[in-house]
Amino acid sequence: MNKRYILIAEDDLDDRYLMKTALEEIGITEEVSYVENGVEVINYLEAVTEKNGVYNYPKLILLDLNMPKMDGREVLKKIKSHELYRKIPVVVFSTTKNQLEVNRCYDLGANTYIIKPVSYDTLVDTIRQMCNYWFNTATLIENN
């Protein structure tokens, strides 16, 4: 069985720290990797190599929208238009509350859109619920 791990695309150092702390607090044992911009997301996915017919892509991508070099919308469009990457669940995790933006992300193929919580306790609860859903409730593609 492949490792089940999360790729977090977040350019803000403080937000990355809070997410890392929240994941540790809820006892996530999956490997977590961090990138700081959209170009790094695509480079990360392109660097995954095939072994015995299996690509060990992240089992979940947490994607901020407002990142430098290539924003989350562009990344989402690239991921969801790629034959192999499009199978990876992408959760948009953003401070942007605009309904038009939410709709646009779903149109581009987002699997879920979550507005970043303001308080740390709510962040922990949101991360807990999200991980529980994607790793314990949803059936994920294993051969990707």
SSE arrangement:
Elements: E1 6-9, H1 13-25, E2 32-35, H2 38-47, E3 50-51, E4 54-55, E5 60-63, H3 72-81, E6 90-94, H4 99-107, E7 112-115, H5 120-137
Parallel strand pairs: 1-2, 1-5, 5-6, 6-7
Antiparallel strand pairs: 3-4
Q: How would you sum up the major sheet?
A: 5 strands, parallel
The gross shape turns out to be globular
Sheet with most strands: strand arrangement: 2-1-5-6-7
* Straight-line N-to-C gap: 11 Å
Care to describe what's here?
With 144 residues, this protein is an alpha/beta fold. It has a single domain (6-137), classed as Rossmann fold, CATH 3.40.50. It contains five helices and seven strands; from the N terminus they run βαβαβββαβαβα. The protein has helices at 13-25, 38-47, 72-81, 99-107, 120-137; strands at 6-9, 32-35, 50-51, 54-55, 60-63, 90-94, 112-115. The protein has a five-stranded parallel beta sheet with strand order 2-1-5-6-7. Helix 1 (13-25) crosses helix 5. The radius of gyration is 14 Å and the shape is globular. It starts with 5 loop residues before the first strand and ends in a 7-residue tail after the last helix.
